[in-house]
Amino acid sequence: MRITILAIGSRGDVQPYIALGLGLQAAGHQVQLASYARFAEFVRSYGIEFAAVGANPQGYIQALSKNVDYWRIFGDNLEQLLEDCWNCCQGTEAIIYSQVALPGYHIAEKLNLPCFAAFTNPLTRTRAFPHPLYTSSVNFGGTYNWLTYVVHEQLRWQSVRQKINRWRQDLGLSPVPFAGLYSRVQQQQIPILHCFSPTVIPKPKDWSDWAYVTGYWFLEHLPKWEPPADLVDFIDSGMPPIYIGFGSMSERNPETVINLVLDSLVQTKQRGILFSNWGGLQNVDLPDNVFLMTSSVPHDWLFPLCRAVVHHGGAGTTAAALRAGIPSIVLPFGVDQPFWGQRVADLGAGTLPIRQQELTQDKLIAAIQDVIDNKIMIDRARALSDRIRAEDGVKRAVEIIQSYLHA
């Protein structure tokens, strides 16, 4: 069966869907993954067919890092995204759409195809915890938690409702009600695959039978890939380093945060690996105990060689650190990152998250000392790793998808 995966977002957002695509291909399906053009080489390197959709994601990524309503960013080029997604789904027999891939559900409705929602975050309404974008250290109770999902869904839907309904009219579909899709999706029992570990977030009791927690969809590095020789030499030359990286996020004054991190490494006498994809690091003076990594290196290879990870709290980086069995220090910018940072801390596998605007030298030094000296945290991170590695999220997701396709 030909299956199209619509995966919109940053590289970290797209990566799990490549892993899912490989699992579906291994099960005998023909898979096409549609995303931003900049990821074409990345996707094709794994032998998956690629289709380009939408405009350049830079505005989307910048909006995320500044906690802006990024649905307005989509509003500016939504017509192109809708048209591209529609075109790439012609001839497909099933659609899987990510949490940001707005058109997937509507295209499946028009073409009368089976479809699956596939989320890297817990976006299904629950009373167990608030929406990941509304994380709080205070427990306001089940009603508040439920309402955070309703509020977010409405903010997202109302920002694109008119354009989506005009497009649906062009397709010969009836308009979506003012309140959005929730009731319709629940009535139709659209399967929802959540690609995180039940060890990290157990399935809430109030989720429906068609909402699944499959386990992570980890993408292994290609067998032909070889690590840079100078990076290997640095790792081998001393104690395991601490990795510092902030994914695709951007910041107005990145040098300030990076210099603070580097100074903290010096004061705690720790070695570090700094991934420079954050940008704007021209004025950073690297100490001798820090290696500057200028190109992406697979986390599944690198993290097990490190002592700890300092990162932004993106879902993918968080998952990789948990799988590697090393503690995290999460410095979230916003969006879902405080949620994952708090979850890591609650699991005992990292320090309490320190929001960027609250970051100080003393707080970071204390956090670094904690991940180095806290034996309970170190042991907990290793124990979680053992449980996560025993799961096979891709296999479980493929089994679920095939159970619906063959029903």
UniProtKB/TrEMBL annotation:
GO biological process entries: carbohydrate metabolic process; vancomycin biosynthetic process
InterPro entries: EryCIII-like_C, Glycosyltransferase_28, GlycoTrans_28_N, UDP_glucos_trans
Signal peptide: none
Residues annotated as domain Glycosyltransferase family 28 N-terminal: 3-130
Residue ranges constituting the Erythromycin biosynthesis protein CIII-like C-terminal domain according to the UniProt record: 284-390
GO molecular function: hexosyltransferase activity; UDP-glycosyltransferase activity
Matches recorded under PANTHER family: STEROL 3-BETA-GLUCOSYLTRANSFERASE, STEROL 3-BETA-GLUCOSYLTRANSFERASE UGT80A2
Record protein name field: Uncharacterized protein
